[in-house]
Amino acid sequence: MSCPIRPLILCGGAGTRLWPMSRESYPKQFALRVGGYSIFQQTLLRVSGPEFGRPLIITNQAYRFIAEQQLAEIDILADFVLEPARRDTAPAIVAAAAVAGQLDPDVPLLVLASDHQVRDGEAFRTAVLAGLPAAKAGWLVTFGIRPTDPATGYGYIEAGEMLANGARAVRRFVEKPDAERARHYVMDGLLWNSGNFMASARTLLEEYALHQPTSSAAVTLAAERAKASPGVVALDAAAYAEAEQLSIDYAIMERTVRAAVVPLACGWSDVGNWDLLWSVSDQDGAGNVSRGEVVLSDAQRCYVSSDGPLTSVHGVEDLIVIVNKDAILVTDRHRSGEVKQIVEGLRRTGRQEADTHCKVYRPWGWYQVTDFGDDFQVKRIVVNPKGRLSLQKHGHRAEHWVVVRGTAQVTVGDKVSLLTPNEHAHIPLGAVHRLENPGNTPVELVEVQCGDYLGEDDIVRLEDIYQRA
């Protein structure tokens, strides 16, 4: 008999409030690691017990391969539903429910954000099991967090009459309050809305059809017309685009009469900005959190992280200092929720640092730009075991590859060669070529590009096992 609960993991957000660590190319659910695991991995490990079935992950094509690599690190298998474009949480969740419901319309789906932190996993699992009878009975069971302070960054839930096993009917949802209202909500026993909930596939589909009939038809059609391969369902782009871009709260939760809530205290945080990350991290005696090569002197209540040079902080309080190889952030900890304004400004001026790390992940591995000029660029490239770049050509640049680790298989025109460390390949302008790793250990090389244009869009893919455009 199958496990009673199927985790449905939302994994499409970018988390710009945690820039520069979290960016479009590698968002916080993958980039933020606590206790050795990314928060995406922690989410999966939290629902890997015997009570849970095979996870279903909702994401896009770009994040799918990052998710697969991180799943392999923790030895968990999952299925994927791929969004062709972001349409907010309601279409994504209901599309995944339609896919899961094809196998069993009554399967309870535990809908979780992939970028939340939970410190007490046992309390979380206890709450999930407490809400299971109500979910099986047709309720949409949210998990309301018992507030630790009058936070203004969360919506709130007022619970009503008791249903079963600690689940209560929802009396009302309220939007993010100002400080005064938040204090009253906490005094009156209202709960934070975590955004995580559980319901059967059938209930989700019924409620979406009732409250959003036009979008429901579009999402259902997108699932019906989806392209399926083992473990992966790619939603139909044309049909999915017709669904209105709405959150699950606005589309269903705030409208349904079938909402229930289970109160929960589990050390939860949505890790929505640097201040929240500081608050849930282990602090030293002065209230500081440090990551990487960091020296603190006469500093209090700071969060300082460096993934590059030694970073020294002296004589300050309540600062966020984030040092990446290509970007540095310094902000007042209490104003860290405003960091998204920096990202918006960078995007307006066309700065690639807004969305792209200098270390760029690809299905086959990753690359990092280490130097560049007007007509040249140097990259460090690592190809994972069995990784294979597309068969491609360039219209504006030639390339030189020097292998420094492992054995690379290199195709240039009709010639295929195996290159070992300290061996070199020249890729002339316009030549059809491919790089792959046939072995079981990573291949690393240095690539020098020379040409009048060096952008990533100067790639004509002729053949690609990852089915990229």
TrEMBL record:
Domain Nucleotidyl transferase: 7-284
UniProt-listed InterPro entries: GMPP_N (IPR049577), Man1P_GuaTrfase/Man6P_Isoase (IPR006375), Man6P_isomerase-2_C (IPR001538), ManC/GMP-like_b-helix (IPR054566), Mannose-6P_isomerase_type2 (IPR051161), NTP_transferase_dom (IPR005835), Nucleotide-diphossugar_trans (IPR029044), RmlC-like_jellyroll (IPR014710)
Keywords linked to the UniProt accession: GTP-binding, Isomerase, Nucleotide-binding, Nucleotidyltransferase, Transferase
Protein's UniProt keywords contain Methyltransferase: no
GO MF, one example: mannose-6-phosphate isomerase activity
Catalytic activity: alpha-D-mannose 1-phosphate + GTP + H(+) = GDP-alpha-D-mannose + diphosphate
Domain MannoseP isomerase/GMP-like beta-helix, chain residue ranges per copy: 292-346
Enzymatic class: transferase
Family (UniProt): Belongs to the mannose-6-phosphate isomerase type 2 family.
Protein name in the entry: mannose-1-phosphate guanylyltransferase
